[in-house]
Every structure is written in C-alpha cells, then in structure tokens.
Amino acid sequence: MIPKVNEQYHFFDDGKISESRHEIVTIEEICDLHSVPLDVFDAWRREVKYCVNYKGDPYLYAKETDFFIKARGEQTKELWFVRTISGGWFSIDYPKTWTAGKLDITGELYKQLHNA
What we know:
6-stranded antiparallel beta barrel, 2 helices, globular
C-alpha cells in the first residue's frame, strides 16, 4: 500500500508503538528512483548497507524501493520513508539523525496501541 499526498498518517519514532513515540505526519511528496533528490538516495543506500545482520542480510530496509515518501510532522520536521523488507515503510535518518520510524498507513498499529 502506498500513502497518498496531503493525507495524514500515524508515525512511530524508532518503530516503537507507544503513545510517547506517536506523531501524526502529513505526506508531502512521493518520488520514484528518477525524481528523488540525490542526497536522499545516497542516505538510503547508506542505511541499507548499515542495517544488516551478522550474515550481511538486511533486517530493516529493503535492498530496493519503488518510492521515496517525503512527510512532515510537528515534532519531526522532515522525514523520508522507504520500503522495508516486509513491504512496509520506515524512515531513514535523513536529513538528520534520530528521525527513523515506522509509518502506519493502515492505522492498525494505532488501533492496537489503544486496544491494548
């Protein structure tokens, strides 16, 4: 599933599903491989190389992504999401560090948090 531009979604900092890590983000732009800014593409490639297990296989980010999703939140000013190995969306540490987190485009993670 691909998020829609100008729609709001739940975001969980560091992928931790808790109220203290929750923020609403708005999708601003969806880029393919040919339209993504080069610095974002390079940052994604670095993250793919860095986030591997002891065998050298990725454990978070997929080796390939179809889209780069730019979003903005009140606390987290700019986020770029790419595909995960499970087909979801997780942001990379760009344009600064400590901005990686999970995008909940179905709302299921948010529902789980409030039904627990």
